[in-house]
Specification:
The chain is of the alpha/beta class. 32% of the residues lie in helices and 21% in strands. The chain has a five-stranded parallel β-sheet with strand order 2-1-3-4-5, sandwiched between helices. Helix 2 links the parallel strand 3 and strand 4. Helix 1 packs across helix 4. Bound molecules: flavin mononucleotide.
Length: 155
Amino acid sequence: MKLAICYYSRHHGNTLKVLKAMAQQGDTDLIDVTTRQAVRLDGYDGIGFASGIYGFAFHKAVVAFARQYLPEGKPVFFVSTYGGAKGSGAAAMADLAREKHCPVLGEFSCRGYDTFGPFRLVGGIAKGHPDARDLEEARQFFRKIRQRLEGGEQS
Ligand SMILES: Cc1cc2nc3c(=O)[nH]c(=O)nc-3n(C[C@H](O)[C@H](O)[C@H](O)COP(=O)(O)O)c2cc1C
C-alpha cells in the first residue's frame, strides 16, 4: 500500500509537520507541489492533497497540480492547517475530485500557527499548533485512510 501526499506548506511549515507525522507510519512519499520536476502518480494506491489555508482556501498551486497530475478515478484525501477560519477549505479539491471521478476517502484539518497580517501584531494566533494532540489525531486519520484503502471502501 503506497501513498503520496502532494503539499504546499510555506507560512510556518505547519502543514508539513502534520504530513511528517502521518508519513512516519511508512510507505508514504511527500511531494512538494512547487518542485518543477514532472511527477507520475499512477503507481500510488491513494493520493493526499495538503495545504495551509490561504484566503479561506487551499493554495492554488495544489489545485493546479492536482488538475495536471491526478489520474482519473484515483482515491484521494485532503489535509489542511488553518489559523482560525478555514472558509471553503478543500472545496475546490473536492470539485476537482468529482470531475476526475476520484472517490474522496476523508478530510483532516487542524489549526496552525498564524502570523499573517494583523495577527503578527499580537504575536500570532493558534500558537503552538499543530501540537502533540493535533499530530496524534492526524496519525489516527491516516491509519483510517489506509484501512479504507485496504478494505476497498469508497465514499
Ligand atoms: C497569506 C496568508 C493567508 C492566510 N489566510 C488564512 C485564512 O483565510 N484562514 C485561516 O484560518 N488562516 C489563514 N492563514 C493562516 C494559515 O492557514 C496557517 O498559518 C497555516 O497553518 C499555514 O500553513 P503552512 O505553515 O503549512 O503554510 C493565512 C496565512 C497566510 C500567510
